[in-house]
Amino acid sequence: MYNKFRKIACGGALAEIFARSVVDNRKPGRSKRPFLQLLAIVALALCGHVADARTPLPDVPDNFCKISQDDVLPPDNRALLSSAPPHADLACAFLERAEKMFLWVTSPYGGDSYVFRSPAFFDASPADSGRRDLAIADATNSNLKNLHVTIAIEPGEADGKVLVTRDCRLVYYLMQVNDVYAYFLTGVKNGIMQDTEFPTGKTLVNGKTDLDMIVDLAREHDKVELEDGKALAVELKSAWVEVAESEKMNFITMKRTIPTYDNPVPCSSTSTSTSWYPNGSREALLGLVGMHVVFSAEGHPEMLWATFEHIDNTPNQDYRYFEPSGHPQTQKSDIADHWMFSDGNPGATFNEARMHFDKSGNIVADGNTPVGPSNIRRNAPWGALGVEADLNTKIISINSQFIGRLADNDVRKNYIMIGTSWTCATGDCSGGGDPGDVHKRQGSEQLANTTMETFYNKGASTCFECHHGPNMLGDHCKKAGLSHLFGALQPLFGRDSRGECTQAN
Ligand code: HEC
Question: How far is ligand 1, taken at its centre, from the CA of residue 254, in Å?
Answer without folding.
Answer: 22
